[in-house]
Design a protein that fits this description.
CATH topology of the largest domain: Rossmann fold
CATH superfamily of the largest domain: P-loop containing nucleotide triphosphate hydrolases
Structural class: alpha/beta
Bound molecules: guanosine-5'-diphosphate, magnesium ion
Distance between the termini: 45 Å
Number of helices: 8
Helix content: 25-40%
Largest sheet: 6 strands, mixed
Strand content: 5-15%
Radius of gyration: 20 Å
Oligomer: single chain
CATH architecture of the largest domain: 3-Layer(aba) Sandwich
Number of domains: 2
Number of strands: 10
Order of helices and strands: HEHEEEHEHEHEHEHHEE
Length: 335
Amino acid sequence: MEPSQPKDSVKHSSPVLKKKSMSETDKLKEYIISYSLNNCPEGNQGYNRILLQLCGYLGHGKSSLINSCVHVLQDRKQQFTVVAQSGEAQGGLTMERKSYPLTPTITIVDNRGCSTLNGFETGELYAQLGNFIPLDLKVEWTQGFEEMLTRLEDSELEPNFRDIIVPIFVYSVKRDVAPSEVQEMKNFLTNCRNLTGIFPLIVLTHKTSGNLTKLHDLFEGMGAEEIISVENYTAEDHTDTRGRHFQFLNLIYKALEDVDFKMQKPINKRKEWAKHKTFLFSFLHTNTPSPPFSEDCDDTPNIQGGYTVYEDSFSGHTSTHYHHYEYPQRNYPFQ
Ligand SMILES: Nc1nc2c(ncn2[C@@H]2O[C@H](COP(=O)(O)OP(=O)(O)O)[C@@H](O)[C@H]2O)c(=O)[nH]1
Ligand SMILES: [Mg+2]
């Protein structure tokens, strides 16, 4: 039995966000720090942590965003400190899903970022978003991703049903978007949404160093629901201002709104897990640009990707079997 709060428990009450006065910023901070999943309409449904999972290309400001979020939630008297190393060369085949607790309930999660969004490394991101990879575990990808995933499964790791994941896509305004990237990003964002049930929050970094309006419109055109532009606190420039603080508190607040919305209805975790596993194995098997997978999945096995995930309806356990099926021809948005 998963712990759950009674339905008539205290509900979240939203802070007033109309003015950006200091007291409103403080209220927002207080709301975030005291946020508890127990106060969701259906109780916590067995979840006890929210992971803000950062994703995006290399060098766009993910680690700096973590430093900024940590900074705005700490005591005002404390100096800015670098907790997540920014600009570091985390390359090669080592991946680590490094986590930084922000509050008792909320943890922000870094990763090294991808150089493209449709290759091997993206499988790693999808595995993170689907909660297939534990936090803070250094993993060497020697024989390839598929082998690693099998090893994770063999280690009898229980599916992680305790963490609720909010995807956050970080993009720097300084960069020019190539036409090919637009398709790649839209596809990626849609897959993130389907893996987590939440459309990624878009964070535009370096907001004063490029064409913010153009990028804002571009992401809006991709279906983004929340686009937040920020100037990160960095080792070079960490002058506190009220507006700058507000940007990061507002981002976390928006993430909590998404959690509230998702938690309004009962979540069938085992079914979601099986669906995500099918998608992930398909992606890893083909290792080609992946089409957004459908949310309208029924209980019949999905044979589209070469792997089939079977769910035992009695125990809820899943098993994965490999099949030599071809992808059926479908009209994907970008083919
Ligand atoms: N001016 C400015 N510099 C930033 C901002 N975000 C990141 N940086 C700098 O950009 C570089 C890359 O940032 P980093 O956080 O390491 O990117 P990551 O690879 O996505 O984690 C570092 O030198 C940061 O100091 C921002 O919003 N404004
Ligand atoms: Mg980084």
